[in-house]
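Lab notebook, design round three. We kept the backbone fixed and only want residue identities now. Task for the bench partner: fill in a sequence for the structure below.
Input structure tokens:
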């Protein structure tokens, strides 16, 4: 696999991960609402979930998902239910950060497992991710490519995903950004909740 294909692959994936979606939403939400630690653990979960779909693309299992209505629709329904749960929870959430002087130390933080799990579940909840990585490997990875080339391509995709969302978590956990969020927490929670519900509807409609 030549360098031009790797560059094209990187460019396409950078554009894809920078397009706001469920992964972006959950990383942003946890970094703003809880802490930098929670945001970064969420990134770890997103990267792990993405790695599973990358692996599925490498070994060809993504094609099985795309060709099996039962598996595809099962992931889709579970994902929509998860997104609905996230959205409804935010719509009901009461302000948590009011009166906190140091926005880097909120009164309650997510557990390590909770933050990681939220990122992982969000990443695997959308079967369109499997189709995306299938198309990536079909388009950019020639059939004659060696396993090492496919693994390198997969590592490139995961590295880009990890780098981008780490930057997002760092930005939105910055004290001044979180201070702005604290002043509009109720409205932001409602906005995030509606976006999660819209993503659930989109997932079911897709």
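Proposed sequence:
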């Amino acid at each position: 696999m030549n360098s031009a294909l790797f560059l094209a692959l990187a460019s396409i994936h950078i554009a894809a991960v920078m397009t706001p979606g469920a992964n972006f939403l959950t990383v942003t939400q946890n970094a703003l609402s809880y802490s930098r630690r929670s945001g970064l653990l969420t990134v770890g979960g997103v990267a792990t979930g993405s790695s599973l779909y990358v692996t599925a693309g490498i070994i060809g299992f993504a094609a099985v998902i795309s060709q099996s209505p039962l598996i595809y629709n099962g992931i889709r329904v579970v994902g929509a239910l998860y997104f609905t749960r996230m959205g409804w929870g935010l719509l009901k959430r009461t302000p948590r950060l009011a009166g906190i002087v140091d926005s880097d130390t909120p009164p309650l933080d997510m557990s390590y497992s909770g933050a990681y799990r939220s990122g992982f579940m969000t990443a695997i909840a959308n079967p369109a991710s499997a189709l995306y990585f299938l198309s990536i490997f079909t388009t950019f990875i020639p059939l004659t490519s060696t396993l090492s080339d496919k693994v390198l391509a997969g590592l490139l995709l995961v590295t880009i995903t990890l780098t981008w969302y780490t930057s997002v978590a760092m930005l939105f956990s910055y004290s001044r950004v979180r201070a702005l969020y604290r002043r509009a927490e109720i409205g932001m929670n409602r906005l995030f909740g509606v976006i999660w519900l819209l993503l659930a509807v989109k997932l079911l409609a897709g």
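Keep this in mind before ordering anything: The chain has ten helices and no strands.
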